Amino acid sequence: MSEQVAAANVVADAAAGGTLIKLIIFSISLGVAPLGSYYASLKYLWNGNTIYAAITAVVAANIVLITYIVLSLLEDKPTVQKKPETKKER
Q1: Which of 23, 44, 56, 88 is 20 to 30 A distant from 75 in Cα terms?
Q2: DSSP letter at 89?
Q3: What pLDDT digit, counting tens, does each position of 11-21 carry?
Q4: Which residues are listed as membrane-spanning (predicted)?
Q5: pTM of the prediction?
Q6: How far apart are CA 12 and CA 18, in angstroms?
């Protein structure tokens, strides 16, 4: 029974923090940002040079990944440690 309660608490914590929404947003941006930056830089920045446009797309993908990692580390809150119960406190 306690395993079910613990699983429910984990799901409630994840839903409260918006973890799933954040994952969906970063997944979409991981596809859109490199493609958008490739074609935009190909046309407007590098004047048709595909190598520089590809490098720009790689940098954009890495920026999205690094941002996701940093935000997930900042979201990780330290849990409050409880003192173990002694026999007298039960």
Answers
A1: 56
A2: T
A3: 666 555 678 88
A4: 20-39, 51-74
A5: 0.66
A6: 10
Task: Give the Å distances, CA to CA, from 17 to 6, 12, 66, 67.
Answer: 17, 9, 20, 17
Q: What does pLDDT average to in each consecutive run of 10 residues of the chain (90 residues)?
A: 61 67 93 96 94 97 95 76 69
Most distant CA atoms of the chain, gap in Å? 77
What are the CA-CA distances from residue 6 to residues 1, 3, 10, 20, 78 (Å)? 9, 5, 6, 19, 17
Q: Report the amino acid identity of residue 31.
A: G
